[in-house]
Amino acid sequence: MSLFPETDHLLPELAGRLEAVAACFERELVSDLSSVNLLARHVEKYRGKMLRPTLVIASGFAVRTGAPPSRVIDESLNTLGAVVEMIHMATLVHDDVLDEASMRRGGATVNSLRGNETAVMLGDFLISSSFRLCSTVGEPWLNTELGAMTSQLCSGEILQLSHRGDFNLDSETYFDIIRRKTGVLAGACCGLAARLAGADPIACKALRIYGEELGMAFQIQDDVLDLVGDETVVGKTLGIDLQKGKFTLPLVTHFSRCSADSRDQTIRAVERCDVAEVLRLVESTESLVAARETAEALVERAKDQLEILAECPARQLLRAIADATIEREY
Amino acid sequence: MSLFPETDHLLPELAGRLEAVAACFERELVSDLSSVNLLARHVEKYRGKMLRPTLVIASGFAVRTGAPPSRVIDESLNTLGAVVEMIHMATLVHDDVLDEASMRRGGATVNSLRGNETAVMLGDFLISSSFRLCSTVGEPWLNTELGAMTSQLCSGEILQLSHRGDFNLDSETYFDIIRRKTGVLAGACCGLAARLAGADPIACKALRIYGEELGMAFQIQDDVLDLVGDETVVGKTLGIDLQKGKFTLPLVTHFSRCSADSRDQTIRAVERCDVAEVLRLVESTESLVAARETAEALVERAKDQLEILAECPARQLLRAIADATIEREY
Q: How far is CA B300 from the centre of its chain?
């Protein structure tokens, strides 16, 4: 169930807490309609890594060193874990519609099995369930922050769509896109968990920034894998970014470095979706290496944010998660 | 701006309050991204009738006879008006994706102008903005109720999709679909507005049921117009229900009344999307008239709910809205 089995020993409580998160997730999605329940069961199969709930739980532990255990805080954190996972599932379901993807975690996507209409509605059902669940924590600021966060998330997707097929996309806009569409959710996991656990504003902010930088590194790694990954290892349809005109860091960097001739050649290779040729060209300017280095730098900056926290197993886990994010091949 | 200009004189305050709702709506959707603002401006053009904010404001007035004016309650109601309108806009944008519709309020749809991907994301942006806005009222129960309501709304759409092309759809399931997908939102407009305005639980429940029955009558009228309406008057693509295999009350009633021969004939006419022939067959069993009578009965039941409220201009307006719902040709 865990993303990084090699680091889970750092926080033995994590496995049990993730099970509680999963139970909360499943309870929320029970419907009186069998057609809805069938879809909810399908979505649970997507819930493999549970990175976001892991960030919530670990952040909660990381700021509570020395404080007595609190059942109320624990339950709030479990609920937040289920909420962020549900928001993440909604984005996956809608992303698959956007990408016309047929494979997710090695299984068929909802859109390919049941059509785009059902996938759109299932995503909406997950979003509204997540907001309902979130309101049960009874903290109005949590709803406000999560609503603002998901609006940012959508604005990132809209920004990316408005630059589709744009060979002039610059790195500043690329970073703005990935911060919004991936960074802010991971940032919210850590920052809001810290606030729920009673941390001071400085610790909350540090954890929010840790999450944002980690999320951005994660997205860059995803973008790199979409170019160089092995479909059977990653478990989802690859090469989609090029096909859909979503140009990511390796290509953006390449365009800023290459000659006019190479630029023309690259544009032609992109237009015929020749991933192997695009990869050869991108590697000729070392832009793939550069993207990996950028992800590494983001991970270092993320880990720096943890310095203000007292050393504890949860902090070690957060550090290990940051490292593992860019080491993964899936 | 109003749905029923002929009845607006009943509540002269309504026009000003709807302007305040519109201002709240527009403020919430301002983004730092021009691509998001452009889309938000496009959606504002859909905001023609403002039926749902009208229900919110009128319900608020209807339960407050004699009570001193309260700025806090007024502002909460304006916010709720903007929230429900935003949820409604989100459903329109996603419905147009689902229906592959090209026309809405006489203009082009977002999906036809900017593609399905952008329309899906814009709908998500509207949903999350509505939840953020809702949380600014500072009443956690309001978020819980609205989240549960939108989940019901999605489940209604999923239920309808799971019966697509199902010639055995029965009227019980049809009513369950339209109660979820249209009734509960209108019911929430009235019931939650009453609660915000401080009404007792009995008045809140009566107004919720009024809204639900009204919403269902509205949906039946919409379904009838999709078969018999004039596209230039209605202002949106028609005949879509048949084309998408969504069978509505006239057809469901017809199948329960017609001979085996007529059933075969009807199925063939539906399969080749021959709206004129379907209409002829449906009229042969008087099933169109029956659907209109069902809508009228729902309107009467809706108005009955208002009996427990003291007579006042807002109650008159709610009664007039119920009547106008099934008299409209658009």
A: 18
